[in-house]
């Protein structure tokens, strides 16, 4: 149990800026909110009179819906903003866009943006609490927190656990945030994928590097499988999707041949038949749907804890 009752920061810009005590506090708060969202009446008045703006400058389904549901479960007033139908298309700057929204007395901003560092830039210029919902290929802190929370729920303490992150590490903001989060909570992390999709200097983060999926699955307790992000790839990193699936995809036959049962995770969306087959994604070893449920509880916890940092 943590003795902390408040986060050490007024924003959640990345796992890099959170302490292990912050992460533990978020987990313990999420434990309480998970009980709430499984009740017949799922709403609590914790964020009544708090207005949250969801600013998504990139497409999103799971993250945006998860945040919106978390906000409504906490009784916040919610404003949704989409860049595709906004004045951004007319040349308005990011800062002007947000300042206009804040003029409407918004208290907290949840933002996804294609530019790495965009949430940190906002945090330096405006007073509202900022939550990073994904900035380019940089970080995705709430995804990492819900992933780690899901592992903790499945296996207990994260300390000493072996976690493999398999797939497109190079273009993934989920991978970096997961590495930071899992290491801060005492887990050992290994990344695995084609050499072309592993960043050159990633070992400097203290992770193990492998190019062998079978050997990595034999080693780990948990495999977090990432999708191939074709929309971020400007060159060909491997011969074909079929070739990728053959050497780096996870299928049921491969799992059945292992010496121990591995917990399977995926942040979504899933490319079925590429990085993971349907019989794995839908198997008893998979906790993918638990990740989705836990995402709401984690985001409720973060919103609640940041609201407590606001001046009265």
Summarize the structure in words:
- By secondary structure, the protein is an alpha/beta fold.
- The protein folds into two domains: 15-140 and 292-307, Rossmann fold; 142-288, Rossmann fold (3-Layer(aba) Sandwich).
- It is built from eleven helices and nine strands.
- Strands 7-6-5-8-9 form a five-stranded parallel sheet, with helices on both faces. The protein has a four-stranded parallel sheet with strand order 2-1-3-4, sandwiched between helices.
- Helix 2 (62-73) packs across helix 11, helix 5 packs across helix 6 and helix 5 crosses helix 11.
- The longest helix is centred in the C-terminal third of the chain and has 20 residues, at 288-307.
- It is globular.
- The mean pLDDT is 91.
Topology:
Layout: H1 20-37, E1 51-56, H2 62-73, E2 77-82, H3 94-102, E3 108-113, H4 118-125, E4 129-135, H5 141-155, E5 162-166, H6 173-184, E6 188-192, E7 208-210, H7 213-219, E8 222-225, H8 241-248, H9 252-256, E9 263-265, H10 278-281, H11 288-307
Parallel strand pairs: 1-2, 1-3, 3-4, 5-6, 5-8, 6-7, 8-9
Helix pairs in contact: 1-11, 2-11, 5-6, 5-11
Short key terms for the protein model shown above:
single chain; 312 residues; alpha/beta; Rossmann fold; five-stranded parallel β-sheet; four-stranded parallel β-sheet; 14% strand; globular
């Amino acid at each position: 149990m943590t003795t902390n009752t408040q986060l050490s920061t007024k924003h959640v810009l990345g796992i890099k800026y959170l302490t292990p005590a912050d992460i533990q506090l978020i987990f313990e708060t999420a434990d309480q909110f998970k009980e709430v969202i499984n009740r017949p009446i799922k709403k609590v008045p914790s964020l009544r009179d708090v207005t949250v703006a969801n600013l998504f400058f990139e497409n999103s389904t799971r993250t945006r819906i998860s945040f919106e549901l978390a906000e409504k479960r906490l009784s916040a007033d919610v404003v949704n903003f989409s860049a595709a139908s906004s004045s951004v298309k007319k040349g308005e700057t990011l800062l002007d866009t947000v300042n206009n929204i804040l003029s409407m007395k918004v208290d907290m901003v949840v933002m996804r943006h294609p530019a790495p560092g965009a949430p940190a830039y906002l945090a330096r210029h405006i007073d509202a609490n900022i939550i990073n919902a994904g900035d380019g290929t940089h970080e995705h802190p709430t995804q990492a927190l819900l992933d780690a929370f899901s592992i903790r729920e499945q296996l207990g303490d994260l300390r000493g656990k072996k976690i493999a992150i398999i797939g497109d590490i190079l273009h993934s903001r989920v991978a970096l945030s997961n590495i930071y989060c899992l290491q801060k909570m005492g887990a050992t992390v290994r990344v695995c994928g084609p050499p072309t999709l592993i960043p050159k200097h990633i070992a400097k983060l203290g992770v193990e590097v492998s190019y062998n999926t079978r050997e990595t699955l034999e080693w780990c307790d948990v495999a977090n499988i990432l999708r191939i992000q074709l929309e971020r790839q400007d060159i060909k990193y491997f011969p074909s999707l079929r070739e990728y699936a053959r050497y780096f995809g996870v299928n049921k036959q491969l799992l059945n041949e292992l010496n121990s049962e591995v917990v399977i995770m995926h942040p979504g969306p899933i490319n079925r038949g590429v990085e993971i087959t349907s019989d794995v994604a839908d198997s008893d070893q998979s906790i993918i749907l638990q990740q989705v449920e836990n995402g709401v509880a984690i985001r409720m916890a973060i919103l609640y804890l940041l609201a407590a940092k606001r001046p009265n």
